[in-house]
Amino acid sequence: MEGPAVSTPESSKEELDVFRQIQALLAEYLVQARDPLTPVVDYLEPASLAKRFDFSLPETGATNAALPALVRDYLEHSVRSANPRFFNQLFGGFLLPGVVGEHVAAVTNTSMYTYECAPMATLMEAAVVEEMARLVGFTKGEGLLVTGGSNANLVAMNAARHRARPEVKSQGGSGQAPLVAFVSDQAHYSFEKAVALMGIGTQNLWRVATDADGAMRPEALAESIKDCREKGFEPFFVGATSGTTVCGAFDPLPTLAEICAEEQLWLHVDGSWGGSVALSQQHRHLIQGSANADSMTWNPHKMMGLPLPCSAILFRQAGTLAEVHGVGGTEYLFHDHDSLPDLGPLSLQCGRRVDALKLWLAWRCLGTDGFTRRIDHLFGLCQQARERVCQEPRLELMREPISVNLVFRYRPLGVSCEDELDRVNVSLRRALHHRGLALVNYATVDGAQVFRLVFANGDQSAADVRRFFDDLLDCARDLIEPQIS
Ligand code: ABU
Q: Model-level pTM greater than 0.85?
């Protein structure tokens, strides 16, 4: 059957009916997905999934009436990140105002480049970014919502290069001493992509050693900078991390800021994960010193629970974005830029999503207090999980948690061979996943394969943490222990 070529009153009515059906389906999905009795995923291997559903794109389309069944299929085998058994990534849960904002942004479909095209969203973005900048201490700062932490880190590094070598913007950058950027050996891989993309070169991203907690060692940074200068290279950028992805460590910003001031280097803070501690009186000491950084990444789609993507790049100095990203040939789009607050000239992207709406709505509904409680709750869950690990004879704590990441492993009694322990932990993790009991990531810490349990879902409770460990231990008794004895 052919779909209608133009909209008629009948087709509009049909569209609305389908839209309502989808909304009802989603509401039903959410109730089920958030129920701990529902598996976190009904896992299928790629080949089985490809057999189960028809992924091909037809020459002749179906009508919109096909949508409910297609959406149902999608939901059935998608990971339920709103489920309390989801601990895999640095996001999770369901935040109603955020989802409503995402929904309304799709329905009203616009782009953030001009005030003319996005009047409400432009002023909402200004409001959220101003508050985020204020919270990290950038009282005369600015910022923008970008596609994610990787993009924010790239934008920051580009601004740093612009300060070191402003001529590169117009002339390119050949024939000078190589620029060098420094990040810790625990920093996110996006920095490596950034140096590759900017033509700085991956070998000119120097990894600085970390301490036992996983935080950058300032004395190692100072030595690396000295070494770099002695080799005839030019240091320009230090990327500190507030909340490393595996251990949740925070680099010591006050000391790094002192080094950067002395060496005249740009200090960027990748607070993609940990920036949200700015909202908590109890935990904001972890980013103490952020006010002296030049830029900071902060992702509300992580601890604050906003739907992906929602990520901010913040600068201490207002005017940075216009200077770094400003180009010519834009007059056709930004007609009234002198009198209206068009955000397009500031951003790397042209078309840009309305992420401000969901963040503004969520902030309005939860208030700063609501976010504070959420962050404190997540820290509390992590402590509860730590206590359980310490109580269980077969669980081994690999690092003391600094924030909301807990790294531990299962250790069958009598097994000390590291390879065997790695195998046990990876297969236990896979069993939890494939049985739909928990989706939890694993990583390498001190050379060992360990569980990385992260707390990002503010809906999770003490009972959810207990269930996670009960299931893990049951699964181990069922699967692992028989192979050992
Ligand atoms: N920036 C995304 C990190 C993904 C993760 O560690 O789960």
A: yes
